[in-house]
């Protein structure tokens, strides 16, 4: 048997189990011993394949983001032949579905949420490789809707306002489930909430654009 084919199953198993353990316990509380035990591998395997707990965590976190983006790619929003208003709606629809998907992402989503609320050094690399491209895409769409070149700070505030509306459904889900469960009760409800965020945001952006045009000599 080829040595590389023997290595890959152990590497993959460790990575999958690491996502599970880190999602359940967090980086600081998770132990290499527990990961190796659940993966049914030698206790030295993490050092052999990943060199350290920190490196394993970084790979597990990157894998979680990769899975989320694989299941919910922003291909439609990247289509520059579409009107920016439509691209904004597609971006929000995709993002909110990714946030609320427990059936496919499950532990991946839980691990990502843990890292965002209690960040480690691994977040810097994730920001560079995964989050910055997402922000850049939304910035471009916002700039197009605003039509004339807008102040960078204004665009950034608009961007964070849109993300904030979406993230409310994720990070305050326990409150929403108790107060307004009908807003995320099923696929059609989630779609309607995404459409509301898009329309709400587009109205605000259009108002910004109109005000800027009135003030421009």
Characterization of this structure:
This protein is 77% helix and 0% strand. With 217 residues, it is an all-alpha fold. The protein folds into two domains: 3-61, Arc Repressor Mutant, subunit A (Orthogonal Bundle), CATH 1.10.10.60; 65-215, Tetracycline Repressor, domain 2, CATH 1.10.357. Helix 1 crosses helix 4 (53-71), helix 4 (53-71) runs parallel beside helix 7 and helix 7 packs across helix 8 (152-171). It is elongated. The N and C termini lie far apart (74 Å).
Could you tell me how far the N terminus lies from the C terminus, measured between alpha carbons in angstroms? 74 Å
SSE string: HHHHHHHHHH
Q: Quick one: overall form?
A: elongated
CATH superfamily of the largest domain: Tetracycline Repressor, domain 2
Taking all Cα atoms into account, the compactness measure Rg is: 21 Å
Largest sheet data:
none
User: What is the CATH architecture annotation of the largest domain?
Assistant: Orthogonal Bundle
Count of the domains = 2
- The amount of beta strand, in percent, is under 5%
Mean pLDDT: 92
Secondary-structure content class: mainly alpha
The count of DSSP E runs of length 2 or more, i.e. the number of strands, is 0
Low-confidence stretches: 1-6
Q: Treating each run of at least 4 consecutive H or I residues as one helix, how many helices? A: 10
CATH class of the largest domain: Mainly Alpha
CATH level-3 fold name of the largest domain: Tetracycline Repressor, domain 2
Give the fraction of residues assigned to helices. Answer: over 70%
